[in-house]
């Protein structure tokens, strides 16, 4: 094949033609993706603002030197299992099994912390829980007629993942028991079926959900599993915040209540260990029947998808988190007791300061209200004006405070006059200062 002709000497260079956004995947023009990009950018534009926006852990819990100790603990664990130097080197430096190398430690931790008795082979270690969401949605939703039910408001990570995969979502409003109302789940599933489509799965964060902070009461959890089974729905349970209750006494996960293997469980070490490791996991112990009666686990099918995306999860991240689990005797709930107390105190400070700045008569006059979550990172404030990106930027520029607009968390619209406040990355002093600035901004906007 001959080379393409070179332009004549002195000829003007060919114009560079930009790609047309309309020729790229439609999700790239979706306001949902634009909203999160804007939030990241505006935070960096106002580095001195008190930021109630990010839902990331408090950095005071992290020490760089600890990473070496975690890694050494895991290497000692491998040596204790009888692996020689060459085998340890292969485990740490090579690609490794697609499903991961620390599934046994994660399974042991789930048994200790959540009472979940799951075999290690039912786990897939993922690049954060976000990859787990993508794998599960891709595997479960086979055709364009498959529909994902989601709580409303809903974490944008799962609705964004569905958008990337061209999957339809149907919102289900939160109910009085916290989380998606079970009877509304029934109604939504039947409406989808009546339209000739298949309600395939329900995504839910039962404990201190992002963004609402809602937590499901135990009877509501039991009822949700009952109606999901009756409607032929799998349940995708996402549990990043379950350790962080304000009061002692955890509620059982949906997976711990699961007697039909109908719950696919998403876990993450971002909040309980550290987010930079980018390590999550999926518990997918459902059996899959193949041709000729062959049975496999859903985890094995997810591994096939993973092998064509990220190939495997970095062994170094797994080794560091594995070392953290070993040093905590595979009991992360106990190891996270200081963090749990810190976040509970921060949430108490936020609620106390809101009460102090806005006593009941003024709240009623302004049309102002907020929820009082039982734990987690987030609270939601309802205000008497449009809490959109422009308002957030006015607040940052004029009052030194950032927060998150709630509207992007409502798949079918809504939440225009609501904003999310996250307490996880702040100190008590910053929360006090931030609520004071936020109060001045709210009065200015309302007046």
Structural summary, described in words:
With 447 residues, the chain is α/β, with parallel strands linked by helices. The chain folds into two domains: 27-56 and 337-446, Alpha-Beta Complex (Aspartate Aminotransferase, domain 1), CATH 3.90.1150; 65-335, 3-Layer(aba) Sandwich (Aspartate Aminotransferase, domain 2). Helix content is 43%, strand content 15%. The protein has 16 helices and 15 strands. A seven-stranded mixed beta sheet has the order 2-8-7-6-5-3-4, sandwiched between helices. It has a four-stranded antiparallel beta sheet with strand order 11-12-15-14, with no helix packed on it. The radius of gyration is 24 Å and the shape is globular. The termini are far apart. The mean pLDDT is 94.
What descriptors fit this protein?
Aspartate Aminotransferase, domain 1; 15 strands; 16 helices; Aspartate Aminotransferase, domain 2; four-stranded antiparallel sheet; alpha/beta; seven-stranded mixed sheet; 447 residues
């Amino acid at each position: 094949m001959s080379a393409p002709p070179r332009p004549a000497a002195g000829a003007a260079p060919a114009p560079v033609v930009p790609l047309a956004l309309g020729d790229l995947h439609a999700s790239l023009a979706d306001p949902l993706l634009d909203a999160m990009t804007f939030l990241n950018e505006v935070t960096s534009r106002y580095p001195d603002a008190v930021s109630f926006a990010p839902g990331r852990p408090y950095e005071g819990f992290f020490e760089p030197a600890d990473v070496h100790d975690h890694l050494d603990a895991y290497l000692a664990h491998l040596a204790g299992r009888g692996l020689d130097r060459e085998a340890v080197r292969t485990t740490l430096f090579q690609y490794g099994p697609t499903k991961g190398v620390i599934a046994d430690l994660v399974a042991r931790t789930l048994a200790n912390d959540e009472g979940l008795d799951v075999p290690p082979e039912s786990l897939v270690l993922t690049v954060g829980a976000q990859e787990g969401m993508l794998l599960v949605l891709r595997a479960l939703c086979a055709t364009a007629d498959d529909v994902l039910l989601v709580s409303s408001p809903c974490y944008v990570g799962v609705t964004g993942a569905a958008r990337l995969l061209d999957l339809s979502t149907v919102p289900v409003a939160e109910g009085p028991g916290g989380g998606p109302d079970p009877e509304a789940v029934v109604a939504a599933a039947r409406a989808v079926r009546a339209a000739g489509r298949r309600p395939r799965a329900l995504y839910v964060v039962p404990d201190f959900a992002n963004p609402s902070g809602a937590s499901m009461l135990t009877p509501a959890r039991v009822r949700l599993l009952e109606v999901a089974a009756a409607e032929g729905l799998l349940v995708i349970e996402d549990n990043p915040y379950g350790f962080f209750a304000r009061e002692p006494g955890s509620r059982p996960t949906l997976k711990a209540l699961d007697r039909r293997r109908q719950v696919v469980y998403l876990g993450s070490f971002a909040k309980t260990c550290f987010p930079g490791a980018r390590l999550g996991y999926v518990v997918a112990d459902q059996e899959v029947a193949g041709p000729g009666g062959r049975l496999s686990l859903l985890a094995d099918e997810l591994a096939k998808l993973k092998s064509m995306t990220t190939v495997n999860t970095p062994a170094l991240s797994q080794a560091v988190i594995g070392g953290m689990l070993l040093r905590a005797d595979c009991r992360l709930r106990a190891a996270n007791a200081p963090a749990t107390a810190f976040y509970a105190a921060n949430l108490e400070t936020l609620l106390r300061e809101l009460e102090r700045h806005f006593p009941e008569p003024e709240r009623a006059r302004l049309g102002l209200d907020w929820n009082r979550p039982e734990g987690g990172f987030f609270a939601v404030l309802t205000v008497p004006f449009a809490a959109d990106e422009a308002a957030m930027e006015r607040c940052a520029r004029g009052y030194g405070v950032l927060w998150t607009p709630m509207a992007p968390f409502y798949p079918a619209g809504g939440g225009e006059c609501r904003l999310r406040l996250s307490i996880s990355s702040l100190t008590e002093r910053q929360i006090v200062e931030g609520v004071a600035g936020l109060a001045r901004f709210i009065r200015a906007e309302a007046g």
